[in-house]
Every structure is written in structure tokens, then in C-alpha cells.
Design a protein that fits this description.
This protein has 8 helices and 20 strands. The protein is an alpha+beta fold and 347 residues long.
Length: 347
């Protein structure tokens, strides 16, 4: 099922929380709405579901305009962050709830519940109460309940926000696997970049009610459309530089940039993995701190002439780390950067 959202606008009082948002989702696609908290992501999702009414704009599902339809008529499954399971019902009764409301025969309800318990890895748990389940199991029950009526579209609002980090990682893998098996067109809201990039076919970056960029995870990382996207996505350095001969110079270190005027003062955004450090007693920076984080090493340094902190990440066994320690001098190379004119600066 395809989705089209055209020029959605939503105000809460004097505050515009969704500002002229348009995008499309292809049938069978899994799309993430990613952005900072309070940026309007959940409101967009709720307007697609029919749980909020847009002040203007249109929602189309499979070529049919639906923004005038009640949520029940849109055939959309919705999964909330905090499960929203009925505590007085068993797991099986929770999953069957939507079917029961629709008057589906009891035998058909039971068959569908059995099928979903198997798909969700919950076999044998149908008679348990939600209080007897782990957080990860409860979230899978919530997903099963949303899928039971065979919705045309599955919407998930911060679906893993209520579980701990390890369970969240397991649920991410599980959701991607489930999507590859059932192919239900799905949109999920998250502010977790790792989650969006690990699961989604395509990522939509939303901030302050506006759609900043839409693209694959690789496109978002390597070709940020705006300075906000470049700053928001990934682990980045933001440095002030000046453009000379097609390069943005930060202290004595230059990075190739395009489309910027000679002499322009710019914000240079460099991802942690697009910096190379190596020990050099004549280098332009001094190492402040070296930290081992799992299989990576983070090196924090001070770039002398720019009077600015910088950091880079390396695999633990990188040859570039040989001799790099707190207090030593290092050479610095920027392998890739993006730059935008500093607000208010003359080009």
C-alpha cells in the first residue's frame, strides 16, 4: 500500500507543530521519521492514522484521499511506545481484541492469534497476563495486536522507547526480520539514529515541523541536504573556517568544499570517522584524551591555531593509533567535510 502526504499543517494554539510536510512512502517500504523530540514526528504519524486532524493538507492511502475518514475506516495498525495492553486480558485476548470488535468469528480469531503468536516468537504465552511478560514480550504482543486485523498500514510511535538498550537492539533486529516476512507498509517514529539506520529502507528527517531531508541511510549520512541534517546525524565536529582556493581552512587544516565563495566564513561539519590523526611532533594539534569504547577508540584533541576541540574515532587496532596518547602532538587530515556559510557572514 502506498502513502502520500501533501502539505500537512497542524497548529496547537499559536504553535505550528507541523509546517507544510509532504512525502510519499512506496508499497511495502519501511520508513523512519527521525528527528529531535518535539519536532512534529508523532503528530505527522497521528494525522496519517486519523488520531489527529490536520488544519490543512491531505493524506492519501493507495490513491484514495482519507483525511476526511475516521481512524477506524483507514485500516491502519498503530503501536504506541508504552504498549497500551489491556491488563485484565490475556495475551491471546489482547491480540484478538481488534478482530472481536469487528465481529470476526471466534474460530477465525483463534486461528489468527495462533498464527501471530508463532510469528512473534510468543508460542505458549497466549494464556498469560501482560504483567507476566518481559518488556520486549509486551511490545511484541502490542505489534501482534496491531497486525491481527491485517491493516493496510502499520504505524509505530517510538515503539522501543520503553525497554532497555539490550532489549531494544533485539527488537530492532526482530522488527526488520518481521517486515521482510510480512511486507506491510510501515512508518515508525524515533529520535534514535542507530535505530532508524539499522531498520529503515528510507529515513525522513523532521525538525521544527519541517521535512529537512528524505533519503536512504547512506544518502542521509554522506549527502546531508542542510546544515541541520549534517549536525544532527552522526558523531560530528562543527568548526569555523574560511574558504580559500576551494578549501575550507580551520587553523592550518584544510578540507575540500564546493559552491562557496572565496573568503566566506563557514561552518565546517566533519564526521568523527572522516578525520585522521597520527602521531607527529610537528603536528597542529595536541591530544587531550584517548578513550576505548567497545571496539572503537575515541581521540579528543585541541587544534592550536583554530583554538578548537576536535575528536575522531578509530578501530581499536588501527595503525594510526600507534604512539597516540594524551599530551602528544598529532597530524590532522580531513578526508571529507561539508560546509555552510555562517549565519550573518558576508560571502
Amino acid at each position: 500500500m502506498g502513502i502520500r502526504v501533501d502539505h500537512l499543517v497542524k497548529n496547537f494554539g499559536a504553535t505550528r507543530v507541523v509546517n507544510d510536510v509532504s512525502f510519499e512512502v512506496r508499497p511495502g517500504e519501511l520508513v523512519a521519521l527521525l528527528g529531535p523530540s518535539g519536532g512534529g514526528k508523532s503528530t505527522v504519524l497521528r494525522m496519517i492514522a486519523g488520531l489527529e486532524t490536520a488544519d490543512s493538507g491531505e493524506v492519501w492511502l493507495d490513491g484514495e484521499r482519507v483525511d476526511h475518514l475516521h481512524a477506524r475506516e483507514r485500516q491502519v495498525g498503530f503501536v504506541f511506545q508504552h504498549y497500551a495492553l489491556f491488563r485484565h486480558m490475556t495475551v491471546g485476548e489482547n491480540i484478538a481484541f481488534g478482530l472481536s470488535v469487528r465481529g470476526v468469528a471466534a474460530s477465525e480469531q483463534q486461528a489468527r492469534v495462533t498464527e501471530l503468536l508463532e510469528v512473534m516468537g510468543l508460542r505458549g504465552l497466549g494464556d498469560r497476563m501482560p504483567s507476566q511478560l518481559s518488556g520486549g514480550q509486551r511490545q511484541r504482543v502490542a505489534l501482534a495486536r496491531a497486525l491481527a486485523p491485517r491493516p493496510r498500514l502499520l504505524l509505530l510511535d517510538e515503539p522501543f522507547g520503553a525497554v532497555d538498550a539490550k532489549v531494544r537492539e533485539e527488537l530492532r533486529r526482530w522488527l526488520r526480520k518481521l517486515h521482510d516476512e510480512v511486507h506491510t507498509t510501515s512508518i515508525f517514529v524515533t529520535h534514535d539514529q542507530d535505530e532508524a539506520f539499522a531498520i529503515a529502507d528510507r529515513v525522513l528527517i523532521i525538525s521544527q515541523g519541517r521535512l529537512e531531508q528524505s533519503g536512504s541511510p547512506v544518502e542521509i549520512l554522506d549527502q546531508p541536504a542542510t546544515e541541520f541534517v549534517a549536525r544532527f546525524v552522526g558523531d560530528v565536529n562543527v568548526l569555523t573556517g574560511v574558504v580559500r582556493d576551494g578549501r575550507a581552512w580551520v587553523g592550518g587544516v584544510g578540507a575540500e568544499v564546493q559552491g562557496l565563495a572565496e573568503g566566506a566564513t563557514v561552518n565546517v561539519v566533519v564526521r568523527a570517522y572522516d578525520l585522521k590523526f597520527w602521531r607527529d611532533d610537528e603536528g597542529p594539534a595536541t591530544v587531550r584524551r584517548v578513550m576505548t569504547i567497545g571496539d572503537r577508540v575515541r581521540v579528543e584533541a585541541w587544534l592550536d591555531r583554530a583554538a578548537a576541540p576536535i575528536f575522531a574515532q578509530f578501530p581499536r587496532r588501527s595503525s594510526l593509533l600507534h604512539g597516540v596518547e594524551a599530551g602528544c602532538r598529532i597530524a590532522v587530515e580531513i578526508t571529507q567535510a561539508r560546509a555552510w556559510p555562517t549565519p550573518g557572514a558576508a560571502e
